[in-house]
Amino acid sequence: MQDERNNDINETAITGVTGPITDWLDGHTILVGLLANPIRHSVSPTMHNNAFAKLGLNGLYLCFEVEGDRLEGAVKAIRMLGMRGANVSMPNKKAIIPYLDKLDKTAEMCGAVNTVVNDHGVLTGYTTDGIGWVNSLKEDGQEVAGKVITLAGAGGAAIPIAVSSALAGAAEIRIFNIHDRNWEPAKEKVALINQETDCRCSLNAMENKEAFKKSIAESDIYCDATGVGMPPLDDLSLVEDPSWLHEDMVVSDTVYQPRETKLMKIAKKAGVKHIYNGLGMVVGQGAASFKLWTGKEMPVDYISKIVD
Ligand code: NAD
How many angstroms separate the alpha carbon of residue 43 from the centre of ligand 1? Predict the structure, then answer.
């Protein structure tokens, strides 16, 4: 089969290698990978390889450009090569499920997997995006337990945030979305959250601006998980002006490029004290995956500085 992927080593550049590699990348090295496409932009290798090195673990994290009919073979390779596991990103998060042996509760509720753990040939799928978001707030002293959350979006970022927040004890989650392809699947997820957790969850029409604005005003946490704020929508915010927000709330944007989105600027003008971009969620999901593979805490402060 013709393979269009570029595997020319001479086209890759390495900087900063200061000497021969010893006690690392040897016969004992344990491999973890990322199965996705596109993949070259990912910060995950930087996060995980630096965490392995910092903790003195002989692990290696590599990216594999995999999708479609290569996915099943790639999952078999996790077993065959005795890899510890993998991260999974677009477009494989749902497609990988039939090839795994089991799912944890969050992955089952989300219907998506971003982490695979190989326990002696048994592959379990997890979703760490949502708990990564929850933990990134917790790191800064902000708990979701008992809180009312308005969540914009119902896609790949929003659903894990809703599921993990509900499992972490959020009192109420009000999801606002436009009537697009995510609306019907989101209805099912909302029903599942109401059935499986003590959290009250609802799906609301983003087109009803007044209801959206009122919900934000009543909330402890507002999270935008739509991607509005990221190029080419970087001069846009669903929250139109500072009067929509209040000082004591948490404002979180899942976007991390740019580091300060239009929403975050509006929140700053409103005097909001706790404002976060999506970098905490990226590191948080990585830290949760790292713990699943190694049993160890990722040195989050150290890694956050490296990827910022
Ligand atoms: P997605 O396409 O799966 O979902 C996007 C959602 O936003 C959809 O429900 C859509 O209806 C809604 N939406 C899109 N444009 C809108 C608009 N103009 N007005 C109102 N609603 C709109 O995408 P996703 O994978 O959920 O990603 C969303 C954002 O979150 C992206 O910016 C992505 O980079 C970011 N993200 C961040 C992390 C992280 O770890 N920080 C992880 C995943 C995604």
Answer: 18
